[in-house]
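hey can u check if this looks right to u? its 283 residues, i copy pasted from the old doc so theres a chance i mangled smth
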Amino acid sequence: MHNETDGLKKLRVTMMIKVLLIFGGIIFMQLLAYMLCVLGYVVFGIISGKGYARALAEMTILVQASETNVMLAISAVSAILSFIWCGLLYVRSSWREEHVNYRNIFSGKNVLSVFGIGSGFCILLTFLLSMLTSLFPEMFKNYTELMSNFENGNIILTVLYAVFIGPVSEEIIFRGAIFDRVYTAFPFWKANIIQAALFGIYHMNIVQGLYAFCLGMVLGLIVKATGSILCSIFTHIVFNGTSYLLPVLLGTGLVWVNVIVIIAALFLVIAGICGIKFLMRSI
């Protein structure tokens, strides 16, 4: 019994070290992405006749000014690099079943549940954040500025990164490579808290970190309940897509559109709650 306890402690320490190395690795990917983007911009500048010094100076100014499109490009490259690296780690994970019944995973009830969770949870968090922002504007100042920066970027690049590249990469990292390792050493709920906490820290912003932690807990639950990371990827895409679609619909200025959106939003929140209850039965 004593040997089993020591073995479990050793396993947990080993897995946590691996997880922290993975987390450190994705931070390094951001630095690598920055270097690749600078190199690409300089090479393009030389080819176009600007010269090395001018191209490097321009890129430095853009980065220091946090120019939205440049930061989006760096984030996208970082996400792709992290996806490739953590995707290889995810494939090597051992706890999942080798033969998966995708008919069961993507049953009508599961699909409706994860769609309701993705959209409903986004609406609920958006409402809470809007309410808190109006009550404590100074506390949420940095978050508001960060979100407004996205609105100034190229719409195609913004949507491509925020709705597709980012969610897929983050799921492979946190609900894939990281969750798979902590789940081999910890009970589900402890493993879920660890991956969700790292997901929150990864956003490097208190407000984003808090809602990323909540989202991470839900996404971890979905992976456990459905047995597939594809479901959490779908949920994450729906979540981010809803966060961009909702302001567009509410910003039309048409009363009848706003009424329909509000009614649909309430329905989706209820659907999300029901979806979580449904998936909890499988835990």
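Residues 185 and 194 are 12 Å apart (CA to CA).
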